[in-house]
Amino acid sequence: MDQGVVQFTDIGFGDPLRLRSGASFGPYHLRVETYGTLNAAKSNAVLVCHALNASHHVAGHYADDPKNIGWWDNMVGPGKPVDTNRFFVIGVNNLGSCFGSTGPASINPATGRPWGRDFPVVTVEDWVQAQARLADHFGIDRFAAVMGGSLGGMQALSWAIQYPERVGHCVVVASTPKLSAQNIAFNDVARQAILTDPDFHGGDYYAHGVVPKRGLRVARMIGHITYLSGDDMAEKFGRQLKGDAPRFDFGTDFEVESYLRYQGDKFSSYFDANTYLLITKALDYFDPARDHGGDLAKALAPARAQFFLTSFTTDWRFSPERSREIVKALVANRHRVSYCEIDAPHGHDAFLLDDARYHAAVRAYFERIEV
After folding, report:
1. Catalytic annotation present for 359
2. Were both Cys, which of 59, 261, 298, 322 would link to 76 (CB 3.0–4.6 Å)?
C-alpha cells in the first residue's frame, strides 16, 4: 500500500549547535517529513537517516508532484517492512544539505548572502546531535529504532554510541565503521572535479549566477561507478555500442558512457556542489574507533540498543567484511545483534532496490520490535 500524499515541514532551532570542529552554528532549521501516528506513549518512533544524495523525503509523494516518490518508498509505508500502521517514522534532511534544511545555499543572516564557502564542515556526530534536538522537539525520549543505509547507517551507529539510552534498536544497512583509503580516494577525486571547475569560484558561485556543472557531473559519474557492481554493469551495458560501429572520436561510443553522462547531467541539475563537498567530507571523517586507539569494540561499548545489520555480497564500496567488523565488535561487548548477508548482484545500490530476501529480513526484524 502506498504511503500516499505527504507534506514536509521546516522546524527551527535557535540555540547554536556546537560542532566537532569547535565551531558553533545557529540558528538553523531542519526539513522533516513524518509518516504514521505517534502513539500516546511516544514509544513507536523510528528515525530514518539518509545517505549522500537523499533527503527527508523517505516515502509517499507530493500532491503537486506525484512522480516525486520517496527514496525508500519500497521500505517505509503501510504494510511495508517498516510498517507505518505500527510505527511513526521521521525522515530528516541533514544540516548542510540542499533539500530544504539550512545549508550552503541558505542565507547567512550576518551577511545577507548565501553561506557558500563559509558554511562550516559538519560531521556525522554533528548530524546526530541535531537529530537528537529534533527528537526533543517531538517529545521523543527514546526511538524504537534508528535506521539508515550507507551514510545513513553511519548515523544510526553513531546514535547508538552518542545517545545509548535513546535508541531501542539500531538498524545498519550496507554501511561501514569507517571509510577505507580507497573510498576516501574516490571522494577526493570527486571533490577535486568540483574544486577545479572554473565555475566553482571558491564556493561562492551563487554570487556569479553559475553552477559548477562540469565538476558536479564528473563527481557523480565517479560516485555512480562505485555504487554498481562489475557484474551488474556487465549485464546492463556490456560493451554495447550506441551505434553500429565505433565512431573513432571522444564522444559516447558505448552505452555505459551514455548512461554515466546522463546520470551526471541529471545530478548536476539538482544537487548543490558545496553540499557535495560537505557530505563527502562527513563520510571521510566518520571513525568512532579513532578516539579509542582504533578499537571499535571500545567505541561501541556504551551502546545499549539491539542491532540488526545487513550487507550485500557484491557491494565493493561498503563490503560485507566491514559489516562483519561491526558485528564482531558488538559480539565482543555481548550486545544483541542479528546479521544478514544478501547474495545480490546490484552492488551498493542494492539497499535501495526491491530484493525480497532483504525486505523480508527487515520486515521480520521490525515485527519483533515492541512499541
Report:
1. no
2. 59
The one catalytic residue among 169, 335, 348, 355: 348
Peptide bond connecting 27 to the previous residue in cis, omega within 30 degrees of 0: yes
**Distances, alpha carbon 150 to alpha carbons 81, 223, 350, in Å:** 18, 13, 11
| C-alpha to C-alpha distance for 217 and 213, rounded to whole angstroms | 6
Q: Are 212 and 200 in contact (CB under 8 A)?
A: yes
Cβ atoms of 89 and 48 closer than 8 Å: yes
Where the chain has pLDDT below 50, the residues are none
Cβ atoms 137, 276 nearer than 8 A: no
CA–chain centroid gap for 5, Å, is 23
User: What are residue 315's phi and psi, to 5 degrees?
Assistant: -80, 100
Any bridge partners for residue 108, and if so which? 113
C-alpha–C-alpha distance, residues 94 and 30, integer Å: 7
Residue from 150, 229, 311, 319 carrying the catalytic annotation: 150
Q: What is the Cα–Cα distance from 318 to 311, expressed in whole angstroms?
A: 8
Helix (H) / strand (E) element for 256: namely: helix 255-268
**Main-chain phi, psi angles of 33, to 5 degrees:** -125, 145
Give 69's contacts (C-beta < 8 A, 6+ positions apart): 60, 61
Alpha-carbon torsion, ordered 295, 301, 303, 307, to 10 deg: 70
**Chain-centre distance for alpha carbon 243:** 37
Length reported for the chain: 371
What is the model's pLDDT at position 230? 84
For cell 567530507, the residue is 281
Question: pLDDT tens digits for 102-122?
Answer: 999 999 999 999 999 999 999
At what angle are helices 181-195 and 213-227 packed, to 10 degrees? 160
Which residues make Cβ contacts (< 8 Å) with residue 242, sequence separation at least 6?
252, 253, 254, 255, 258
Instruction: Count the Cβ atoms, other than its own, within 10 Å of residue 296.
Output: 22
Binding residue numbers: 220, 349
CA–CA dist 31, 43 (Å, integer): 22
Dihedral sign of CA atoms 157, 159, 164, 170 in order? negative
348 is an active site residue = yes
CA-CA distance, 344 to 277, in Å (whole number)? 30
Catalytic member of 315, 319, 323, 346: 315
Q: Which residues are annotated as a binding site for substrate?
A: 220, 349
